[in-house]
Amino acid sequence: MLLKVNSKGLYCAKADVYIDPWRPVKKALITHGHADHMRWGNQQYLCHTDTVPVLKVRLGADVVYQSVGYNEPVTINGVSFSFHPAGHILGSSQIRVEYKGEVWVVTGDYKLLPDGLSPEFEPVRCHHFITESTFGLPIYQFESPLTIFDDISNWWQENREQQRATVICCYSLGKAQSILNYFKETEERVFLHGAVANLNDAFRENGYHFIGSRIAADQKKEDFRQALIIAPPSALGTPWMRKFGDYRTAMCSGWMQLRGMRRRRGVDKGFVFSDHCDFNSLNAAVKMSEAENIYITHGYELQYAQWLREAYGLNAQIMKTLYNDTETEEL
Ligand SMILES: [Zn+2]
Predict the structure, then answer these.
(1) Could you tell me the distance, in angstroms and rounded to a whole number, from the CA of residue 104 to the centre of ligand 1?
(2) Ligand 1 centroid to 218 CA: how many Å?
(3) So where are the chain's domains?
(4) Nearest to 210 by CA among 235, 227, 185
């Protein structure tokens, strides 16, 4: 086995490197900047160029790293590694691993539907395909994020007509930037929670310029009337929100498809927008990989592995990892 899970993470013994390790190691290849994939404490990091700003913001300026672009193979101890677009967030990559003709692909987190910002998922053929299964049940069927952004735009307009502020809660890395990118031509006011503003500032060094102003401490209530505010879900229900006066809240998450979830989160509106694959996308990605061996990680591993065995006759098995995308974070 070219890749195997051990107590520290997904390990390639031939090259002596880990992919998205959950315990500190010597050399870590990182699929993307979300906290459960890019952890603190590794001696060296190898990631895509657009993951570097996040690496520095979250792990400190003195982090030791090497960066690569997409489709630029790096050879370590005779094993070839290359990064390919995963369509999840800026910089997100599938990592292809090849040794003596045997090819593995680690997808990390990924989606097939375009969000207008993240480079689109590139199918990579392999023998062994490792996939997440966050939404690996048939009930999860998502529309294109671009359609959802149109819905957000309409809802914002309704709120503007009623002189209200619009607060969109979404993960500060990924969804925040793709929503801001969609609204880049707007002439209306857009404000950012500090967590979003910090990441946007970091992306500037890679040439990305996102709209929106960081909310100042002395910002007046009137400034927020009719404005769009982008904040992480953790801001929901906190006193921080009071400064907006009359406002409406929305949550962007794949879980919004579940009845009752919107009520549970106490928001006025739920948008079914995820940076992960829905059920059909997972199936499409598995087929495009042409792999016969499929390893299912975080999500509905049991159900999805069983589905792949029964529906497609694939050799699908569960791969236990510690990736844990919580609902309040990024989904
Ligand atoms: Zn992620």
Answers:
(1) 20
(2) 34
(3) 4-140+275-318, 145-271
(4) 185
pLDDT digits (tens, 9 = 90+) for 169-208: 999 999 999 999 999 999 999 999 999 999 999 999 999 9
- In the CATH scheme, what architecture does the domain 4-140+275-318 have? 4-Layer Sandwich (3.60)
Which of the listed CATH numbers 2.60.120, 3.30.300, 3.50.30, 3.40.50 matches domain 145-271?
3.40.50
Q: How far is the CA of 89 from the centre of ligand 1 (A)?
A: 7
Mind listing the pLDDT tens digit for each residue in 226-250? 999 999 999 998 999 999 999 999 9
User: Using CA of residue 92, residue 6, residue 312, residue 301, what is the dihedral sign?
Assistant: negative
**Distance from Cα 187 to the centre of ligand 1, integer Å:** 31
Burial class of residue 137 (count of CB atoms within 10 Å of its CB; 0-12, 13-18, 19+): middle
